[in-house]
Amino acid sequence: MNLNQLRDYFPAEDIEWRVQRSGFSNGKPWAMVLAYITNRAIMQRLDDVCGPENWMNRFMECESGAVECGIGIKCGDEWIWKYDAAEPTQVEAVKGGRSASMKRAGVQWGIGRYLYNLETNFAECRTDRPADRNGWNQAKADGKAFYWKAPQLPAWALGGNS
Prior knowledge:
The protein is of the alpha+beta class.
């Protein structure tokens, strides 16, 4: 088992985006977006690198209501654990909190950590509903709906050299 492979780049289809901040300026929408690795991609990476029998996760609820996740990897005869926590989310609070804490625990192992090196990304935004909804997401800012499309990742973030 080569744990350095946990840090390998992910294909674009395993990377999702979420709006971190948004608003309207001069009547036009804007959205700052963050890239992240899906929880399923993290589990697959752990299966591929460690084998399904050599990793596990644990979830604990903190007094504050946050959810803590630990990812343990069996190294020889010993389990090594790394933990991180996240607040419950507004949508599907329990599932969202568990998923977010596992993503953060994955970063402790180096999974997707390279995405923190991305520069600030802004989505393509518009107020009118696109005829072709492919790749467009809907959000609200200042009580008004708008549509946004994620930016392209730079080649280096997909394992390229640029």
